[in-house]
Amino acid sequence: MYQYKDQDYEAVHFDGQDLRYGELVRCTFKKCTFMNTSLDEIETSHCRFIECDFKGAALCGSVHTESAFENCTFNGANLFVSKFSSCKMTGSDFAGAQMDGVTLNQGDWSYTNLRHTKLGKQDLRGIRFYEADFSDTDLTKADLRDSDLTRVTLSRANLQGADLRGANLEGIDLKTLNIKGARMDREQAILFIRSYGAKVD
Q: In the prediction, which pLDDT does 46 show?
């Protein structure tokens, strides 16, 4: 196992390397590429990845704590049973990423592309998803309580059985949602009824 602390890298290509089982602490990576890199079971803490490319990378079982992945690309990456705790993921693209069994704990996932991902039954409480794209995403029975879903895109997303209580649903076209069996609080239910033109006294 290797450990890097307080290191800065810019435009470095780590493509195809075996970097499994490492620990990165307070490191910064700017415009670096990790395409098809083996990063299984690495741990990052207070690191910053800015505009980095993780296309096709393997991050299975990786653990990230208070790290930032800003405007990064994860197309086709394998994030099976990876864990992100209090991470800032703003603007990152997860299209085509394998996210089965992923754990998201708090954090800021604003402006992320999460199209076609499988997040069913996930605990997504309190996460900021401001203007994220959940098109065609499986959110069945997901726990979205107290999350910020302001202006998220949910076209063709499956929210059956999801728990939406306390979530901010501002700017969402509620008429397009499949929310059979979803749990809502009173304010959300009124918002939903009003979206169909009903008057609530």
A: 98
Q: Is the pTM of this model over 0.90?
A: yes
Token code pair at residue 157? 């997303």
**Burial of residue 23 (number of CB atoms within 10 Å: 0-12, 13-18, 19+):** middle
Q: Determine the residue type at 1.
A: M
User: Which fold, 1-107?
Assistant: Pectate Lyase C-like (2.160.20)
* Tally of CB atoms within 10 A around 41: 17
Is 200's pLDDT higher than 80? no
Cα gap 133→147, rounded to integer Å: 15
Q: How many residues in total does the chain contain? A: 201
> Which two structure tokens, joined as six digits, stand for 174?
């509620």
Whole-angstrom Cα distance, residue 124 to residue 143? Answer: 5
Cα 195 off chain centre by: 28
Strand ordering across the sheet containing 3-5: 3-5, 23-25, 43-45, 63-65, 83-85, 103-105
Q: Which uninterrupted H or E stretch holds 191?
A: helix 186-195
CATH of domain 114-201: 2.160.20.80
What residue ranges of the chain are covered by domains with CATH 2.160.20.80?
1-107, 114-201
> What torsion do the CA atoms of 58, 60, 63, 64 make, to the nearest 10 degrees?
40
